[in-house]
Amino acid sequence: MVIGGASGHALECLDILSNQPSLEFIEFYDNGIEMPLFLNKYKVIKDQICLQNHFKVDPQFILAVGNPKFRSTFYDRFIKAGGKLVNLFGFNNTVSGSAVYTGADVFNHCFIGSKVFIGKGTLVNTGAQVHHEVEVGEFCEISPRAVILGDAKIGNHTRIGANATVLPKIKIGKNVIIGAGSVITKDVPDNVTVVGVPGRIIKS
After folding, report:
1. In this protein, which residues make up the domain named PglD N-terminal (predicted)?
2. pTM here?
3. Which residues contact 22 (CB under 8 A, 6 or more apart)?
4. Could you report the per-residue pLDDT of 179-197, keeping only the tens digit for each?
């Protein structure tokens, strides 16, 4: 398996993997660092040829970065090299049987309600709550303890900050950043940064 990313978030991914059936062939991918080994144990690969060689032996990969841009970039690069996305599912989660989250990572102590749809490559981080009929796009980041309430809609490549709350039926566009602790009370257009209580646009 290739773990895409070799920094802090990768440590938490590795913890989840360590409680799953043993994986004998783990390498990390990160072309932005110099170190040859992660945790002084795992090889860090940095180029497409090494990826292709790894995927000939084991095509599985996970995305071990939070940033939506990096998640999307790594996904495209790994698929091109012959990889196959595997999603992580952590511990002590409550997930409705009617929720669809194939291809998304769900960390520990999360709640995912009825008729929720979460897109490919999205991260639902520890303690997040995604309530009934919410739709989350592809390659989003739902940060720890964020709460998205019923029937809200989140566009692709959007980041919801830690402890932020999105109120019911709110629509948030693509490529949006919602600051930590913000409360989103009205719809948000594409390509903006929103912070505060109530949330206000501070950057386009």
Report:
1. 2-77
2. 0.93
3. none
4. 999 999 999 999 999 999 9
